Amino acid sequence: MAAARLVVAFLAVSSGFLAVSGQKFNAIFSFGDSMSDTGNLCVNGPPAGLTLTQPPYGETFFGRATCRCSDGRLVVDFLAEKYGLPLLKPSKQGGSDFKKGANMAIIGATTMDSGFFQSLGIADKIWNNGPLNTQIQWFKQLMPSICGSTQACKSYLSKSLFVLGEFGGNDYNAMTFGSYSPEQASGQSATIVDAIGSGVEQLIALGAANVVVPGVLPVGCFPIYLTLYQTSNAGDYDQYGCLRRFNALSARHNQLLQSKVTSLQGQYPGARIMYADFYSHVYDMVRSPGSYGFSTNLRACCGAGGGKYNYQNGARCGMAGASACGNPAASLSWDGIHLTEAAYKKIADGWVSGAYCHPAIGA
């Protein structure tokens, strides 16, 4: 029996190495928002009224809520597992050893600083718990404990994987949940993308040589948007039931971001700057859920809203009366805003293999 277990363990390890095509990293450093936060928002105790610190969040893998916005692991968790690294600790967790990785991402994070939103008259629509520039400052504060001197850091960080985002989603949320139409919000995309590009350059200046830059998701397919902005006009929806205007906003951002990444690749030939296509992969899951093992694509697994999308703001996942579906792995959407662990695993696989990341992380 013991021998059999050893064989199984060997095969599992072997297949893991095959999956990453021999690529090896000494650490992973992640930045972003609720798609990536592994606990930064909760290191000083869960903020009052934050439902994601309640069951059934975390039920699939951790068996408890971990401040992750999912039923289990996130893309960065799966990347860490693929490369034989520990799950990323929140950078704000004092006294931790971050030599093998740290997560600067925090729920509610935006690309832009608070002044940007003040200038648009929507400062009240953001949490701004650590925008992009602030997260890079957090990382700089950790660097001496991670790699020592500036020169030593350049060497160490050149062998690490950096995941910058996604960023942008909350910038657009602030605008669209404010008084901006998707078309008006799109007018700010160039500014937001320039800020993301600046973030990439700051990391490269510190020594980063492998940087993943994810685009934003097709939010027009997400239950929260489908519920809040539903209309009686069939022409507002595409053939899969997604809101066209909101997906057009995401697509415009991604078009500009891909151009920015291409430009940066030319400027920094010594770095591997990878565009991760969140949008195309998730949209493909919406288009053909069955091929990904999903039986539902536009309906939240966890909530108490009922209706077509099982979402309502007053009965979100984690609130009294809300519950999770029996099999989260058969759902694309976890809580109407974020995805299930099953979806995040498929996304991580697509980034490593190159199906939805250019070039592939594992290349």
Automatic annotation (TrEMBL):
InterPro entries: GDSL (IPR001087), SGNH_hydro_sf (IPR036514), SGNH_plant_lipase-like (IPR035669). Residues 1-22 form the signal peptide. GO terms for molecular function: hydrolase activity, acting on ester bonds. Keywords: Glycoprotein, Hydrolase, Signal. Transmembrane segments: none annotated. Belongs to the 'GDSL' lipolytic enzyme family. This is Esterase. It comes from Panicum virgatum.
